[in-house]
Specification:
Layout (H helix, E strand, L loop, with lengths): L3 E6 L11 H4 L4 H14 L3 E6 L3 H13 L4 E5 L8 H9 L4 E5 L14 H5 L2 E4 L4 H11 L4
Parallel strand pairs: 1-2, 1-3, 3-4, 4-5
Helix pairs in contact: 2-6, 3-4
Bound molecules: 1,3,4-trihydroxy-5-OXO-cyclohexanecarboxylic acid.
The site of 1,3,4-trihydroxy-5-OXO-cyclohexanecarboxylic acid (DQA) has 10 residues, from loops.
Length: 146
């Protein structure tokens, strides 16, 4: 196993900072990546932060995380969270632990966000803490809770 933690971000998260800031806050994905890198490197881990708007790319990256022996995956699949059986199957197909991450708390939002296929396969879910959700999820990996 390597010390690399993949942080995979799905659709529309490239617009973080501009996109509905009243829901998602004003940090960009690069701001979040910078903080995660500092947090990880202080604990002897490395972050590999990625974003795609394409569902199949997330599937491929989950397979890659497994093949390369990543320590864990933090996955904010955006709206694919609520629709993608392919992501659930990919999470179940690999042995790398996947932590589900959301800035908002989808369970308190529209009903169509209440189902999480990602959550059905994830070892843990961290949601509703804004950008800090990523840092909390990373800390669980660093602390060996996952
Ligand atoms: C999100 C929540 C999802 O419901 C939404 O589709 C997103 C962002 C979040 O981080 O709060 O794109 O994953």
């Amino acid at each position: 196993m390597t010390n690399t933690i993949l942080v995979l971000n799905g659709p529309n998260l490239n617009l973080l900072g501009l996109r509905e800031p009243e829901i998602y806050g004003s940090d960009t994905l690069d701001d979040i990546a910078g903080r995660l890198e500092d947090q990880a490197s202080a604990a002897g881990f490395a972050i590999d932060m990625r974003q795609t708007n394409h569902e199949g790319m997330l599937v491929d990256w989950l397979h890659e995380a497994n093949a390369e022996g990543a320590r864990a995956v933090l996955l904010n699949a955006g709206a694919y969270t609520h629709t993608s059986i392919a992501l659930l199957d990919a999470i179940r197909a690999i042995t790398v632990p996947v932590v589900e991450v959301h800035l908002s708390d989808p369970k308190t939002r529209e009903e169509f966000r209440h189902t999480s296929y990602v959550g059905m396969g994830a070892v843990k879910t961290v949601e509703g803490h804004g950008a800090k959700s990523y840092e909390i999820a990373l800390q669980h990996v660093i602390d060996g809770d996952i």
